[in-house]
Write a structure and sequence with these properties.
five-stranded mixed β-sheet, globular, about 35% helix, alpha/beta, about 20% strand
């Protein structure tokens, strides 16, 4: 049986036709309608993805940002896709396409994918941190996905990094920890137009050793590693896997590990033995495909 997995990203709606084993048979992406658009604009894009494949698939598995009621398919929030907030996505899919569906939070999907057959396979306590248009975390505690009391466990985009300015979006991890923060900060530092720098170009500059780009990466990693350190004191994880497109850049993982080493070695109790143990930092095995694979895993296990 074939299934369609769809990842509602802030920049692109990514999709893949997959089999029961999670093998990707076909994949692609379409631009995500921006915040000024409507739910109907979103479904117009979805039509382009679903309708040509409608009679060849046994269902649709969604990964999406925000607070998701996985039992009903209701989206309490939807991240940057604000036009989907308050929608029951599964009911809408049944009505429009006559297909069964499931939906789960994107970072939780990534964690399920990596636990299924990736970097968290066999790990009792671990996490995936997805660095994309926003930032998300999927938690595996005692071998099971942890959702929290209101389906919001791991919504680390809401972590406040500047308590003196709680009304500013830049005070939150959603902005400062997203992959977009690198290019945005570089543009501000150099005075170039932000449209001239994307993730690919940013890492070209970093890997070439361009001074400002490398400084921006170091500052970005410093904040990210500081947050990871704080998560570890609370959760005591074995493995933390980094996901999102930029996780494919070896220098990112190298810098995170380097900063984590520093934080653990600099602690005043380090000389006497740290009570908090440093987790293994690795990349998601499936990189940008983790959300799609995890969405399918969720669909198959619900069915």
């Amino acid at each position: 049986m074939k299934y369609l997995a769809i990842d509602n990203g802030g920049t692109f709606i990514k999709y893949a036709v997959m089999n029961d084993l999670g093998t990707i048979l076909e994949k692609g992406k379409e631009p995500t309608p921006d915040k000024k658009k409507t739910a109907e604009d979103y479904f117009n894009v979805l039509d382009q993805i679903v309708l040509p494949r409608r009679h060849d698939i046994g269902g649709i598995a969604f990964s999406t940002p925000g607070q998701v009621d996985v039992d009903t398919g209701f989206l309490h929030t939807a991240g940057g896709l604000v036009y989907l907030m308050g929608l029951n996505l599964c009911e809408e899919i049944q009505k429009r396409y006559g297909l069964p569906s499931s939906v789960d939070n994107d970072a939780k999907c990534a964690a399920m994918a990596e636990q299924w057959n990736g970097s968290l396979k066999g790990v009792r306590n671990g996490a995936v941190i997805v660095l994309g248009t926003g930032v998300g975390m999927g938690l595996i505690i005692d071998g099971k996905l942890y959702r929290g009391s209101n389906y919001t466990a791991g919504e680390i985009s809401f972590i406040n990094l500047d308590l003196d300015n709680p009304k500013h979006s830049e005070s939150y991890m959603a902005v400062t920890g997203s992959s977009l923060a690198l290019g945005r900060t570089y543009a501000k530092e150099t005075g170039i137009d932000p449209s001239e720098i994307d993730g690919v170009r940013m890492f070209e500059l970093i890997n070439q050793g361009e001074e400002t780009a490398c400084k921006v990466l170091r500052n970005y990693v410093k904040k990210l590693a500081g947050s990871i350190y704080n998560f570890q004191t609370l959760l005591d994880l074995e493995v933390i896997a980094i996901g999102g497109g930029i996780s494919q850049q070896p220098i990112l993982l190298e810098e995170i590990r380097k900063e984590m080493d520093y934080l653990f070695e600099a602690h005043p109790s380090a000389a006497y033995g740290m009570a908090v143990k440093k987790p293994k930092i690795t990349a998601c095995e499936f990189y940008n495909d983790s959300n799609l694979r995890g969405a399918l895993y969720h669909f198959l296990n619900r069915k």
